[in-house]
Amino acid sequence: MLRIGMVGAENSHTAAIAKVLNIDEKIRGVRATHVWGETAAFAKAAAEKGQIPTIVRKPEEMMGEVDAIVVDHRHAKFHLSAAKAFLETKVPMFIDKPFCYRRAEGRRFLARARKLGVPVCSFSTLPKQASFKKLAQQVEKLGAIQSVVSTGPCDIKSEWGGIFFYGIHQVDMLLRLVGYDFQRVQVVKGAGANHAAHILFRSGVVATMNLIGPGTRPAFHISVIGEKGRIDMPITNDESSYLTGIKDFVRMFKTGKTDETEQSMLGPVAVLESLEKSVKNPQARVGAGI
CB neighbours of 119 closer than 8 A, spacing ≥ 6? Predict the structure, then answer.
């Protein structure tokens, strides 16, 4: 059996991932066996909801007891500090989105992982949904992309990293469609809780993210205009929204191989870091890039 240790329990993803593995038993021979929580209450709640048998008082207690690690905090600033100790034990790890809070820290972490030969991956689950994969296939038929508009929930004042917390979903999808040659970003603040973020690419593509604030929770939606037409599609969740992503990181745990790259993990962080600067100074057009 492949034993997974869960580091972080405040985020609902911990219990959701454990449910898929331990209760629904969607992947044979893989279980979430250990959990550490930011508080004892968080750990207890996640263990009960996901039927995780072992709660540890310190993450280090998992060392030697698990075969892989999932790091899952609500705020990305805690991800890599939690993962570093496990990196030295050379266990493969999935780090929930966003991969990190600062791309410079992420570069150093991935360089160390490469040196040690430790498989690491991170992603939003939205690009893993069947609806997004269908959209991406149709976008390939449009020829050169001219513009992309995405819409989804995002509170730029979130206590868990502002635009990082939910902005990662739109940014990850957008970059997978357009590429990583982003040049400048700017956040235009609305009168209330709704805002817009503009991203300019060196290729000439222009992108806008509609950031819908607290009070409503719209479905994610993407519109793409290419030289041969346009596509408009809601990005809906699979019946089990976590399953495809879990299969991806479990495959990496078993084989040491992942489709994720330094670019796919750090690209969204670079955009979000620049967007964060623009939130603080809306008049500025902030340079971006990895």
Answer: 92, 93, 113, 252, 253, 256, 257, 258
